[in-house]
Amino acid sequence: MHLLRSIALFLAFIGLITPPASAKDNWPSRPVRIIVNFAPGGSTDNAARPFADRLSRALGQQFVVENKPGASGTIGVEAGVRSAPDGYTFFVVGSPVLTIVPQARKLPWDPFRDMVPIAHFGDYLLPIAVHSSVPVNSIQELAV
Question: What residue ranges define each of the domains in the chain, with the CATH number in brackets?
Fold first, then answer.
């Protein structure tokens, strides 16, 4: 009985993750939305737009960036989580929104349960700067 249940679950899993051949061949057959959870002109938006443009050119279908800023990025994430699971809405999100924000407050979504990462397409640096009158040249000197 256990073996039959395992086989049934495996077949159901394969059926869920393998779209029919016709669906694969036709995707995307309409514009695809890419939700960015920060305002236009920010680092997340500036990373997503060239990515969307390249996808549009490569796949012959429009990939449209839609900015949904607010609440430390959680409004955009929630819009992505609530979208139809049809492959026509993606959302770009920085790791702090998925790692730090859920620790700070209760959210209506869970990053482990409600979303699946599909690509990593950028990194960014957060430099530390001080006023030029501060007599330091390194993080070690600043820490002293």
Answer: 29-143 (3.40.190.150)
